[in-house]
Description:
By secondary structure, the chain is mainly α. It folds into two domains: 11-255, no CATH class; 264-284 and 306-339, no CATH class. 55% of the residues lie in helices and 0% in strands. The radius of gyration is 32 Å and the shape is globular.
Amino acid sequence: MTAGTARSPRDVARWRIRLFKGFALAFALFQIPNAGNLLAPWSPDAAPALSGLAFPDTHLWHAALPGAVRLIVTGGVLAALLRRPASDSVLVQWLVLSAVLTLGIVVPFAGLPPLLFIVLPTVIVVATYPWPSRLLDVRAAGFHRALAALTVLCAAVLAPGIWQNIDDQLRDVGGEHASEAHWALDAAHVILLLTAGALSSTRWSGWRTLAVLTGVTFIYLGIAAVAAPEQAGSWGSIGGALGVMAGVAYLLAGAAPRRRATTAGSADEDSRARRHRVRPGGTGGASAAPRSPGSGPMKPDPHEGPKVEERYVSSSPSRLGGGCWHCPPRSLLFPDPAR
């Protein structure tokens, strides 16, 4: 896909942009109750996800992990799209992947609630995106090797836990943990977090936002794992420490200042042009020897770069054969070939 196929922000009707922002804002506000789930490792009574459970004290990690991804990553992505919906299309691409993963991993075990409250609102937001062609734009925009390596490392560390959660869900292990689809929820949201890290390494527009949101989520989950190391599915104390370090690395990569384009090449060309300007008494730099009017054209030096000829134009052609007072005679610039 070429850049010309994507519609310009000016080509989209304002009502479409406002409609998209309205749905995005509503879905972002819908993530606010997840803030209580983030308090689950320290205050279980504040977590809405634990209400109605027979043994809420054993599900603290199951409330914290999905709540963090939903509030920090999903809410942060939607908030960023309210500010720059046209340019940060990679954020909408992550929303598409979140709907697909939730539909494929969570809905088969949890049923209607995640379909109505996660998948359907995400589909509405994506469907109203005013620039749908940009969602298919996967042109290479550079590659952040550090973020890619970090995501691969995190995936390698978390892969056994993801597989264990899926296996426990399939085998109905843990009673309430399986009946509430908590194993599937944990697996899906860890994959979503890794997906955000992977997309941030592509350097597509909006990658910095994803890197920062991924870093903040990893830091929180690391702290929560240290606070609740014995909970089912928790990363434990060591895993929590590693999560904090990974989060800091994502933050540093996402918040690093942009590298300015170097102008060394243009500066070299300018300096080369100044060295080879035509001057009174020579065609080289300041050390060029003066030439007599009858010596003929000067042969180019094979060891020097291309010479830039500078012509002077004056508004008063009465001086020195049409040039200004400080210019050389025309015989120096344009020697007579008959001589």
